[in-house]
Amino acid sequence: QVQLVESGGGLVQAGGSLRLSCAASGSVFSIDAMGWYRQAPGKQRELVASITGGSSTTYADSVKGRFTISAGDAKNTVYLQMNSLKPEDTAVYYCNAAITTLRPLRTYDHWGQGTQVTVSS
After folding, report:
1. E runs forming strands in 44-89
2. Mean per-residue pLDDT for 32-59?
3. Which residue of 1, 13, 40, 119 is surrounded by the most CB atoms within 10 Å?
4. What DSSP element (H or E) covers 106?
C-alpha cells in the first residue's frame, strides 16, 4: 500500500511561481527515483524533471533554469519549484515514483492523482 499525495497546484499569472510537493506514504522501503510529469490538453505526457537517490537530476529543456526539483527534508518527499511560469506551462502535473516494498518484494511505478497548474497570460 503506497500512496503519493500531491499539492501546490493552482492558478497564477505569467511570471509567477508555484511550489509543488509530493509525498510518498505507506509501506515504502526505498524510492529509486521520483519525478514530475505534465500533460497539457492535446499533448502527450512529458517528463519535466526527475531525481534519483544519488541526487542526480534531469530537466526538460523547456524548464531548465526555471524549475528546480529537490528532495525534501521530510522523508520520501520531493518538490518542484516553478519560477517564471509561462502560459505554456499550463498542464496537469503528476508525481511519479519507483518505489520498492518488502511485502511483497516488488518495485512499481506509482502515480499521484495529478494537480492542475494554470498560468494566465
Report:
1. 46-52, 57-59, 67-71, 77-82
2. 93
3. 119
4. strand 105-111
Amino acid at 57: T
Distances (CA, A) of 3 to 53, 88, 110: 19, 29, 8
Give the list of residues 6+ apart from residue 92 with CB closer than 8 angstroms, or none: 38, 39, 40, 114, 115, 116, 117
If you search the block for the grid coordinates 526538460, which residue do you land on?
60
The predicted-structure confidence for 64-80, as pLDDT tens digits, reads as follows 999 999 988 777 899 99
CB 77 within 8 A of CB 24: yes
Answer whether 17's CB lies under 8 Å from 73's CB. Answer: no
100: left (phi over 0), alpha (psi -120 to 50) or beta: beta
> How far apart (Å, rounded) are the C-alpha atoms in residues 15 and 77?
26
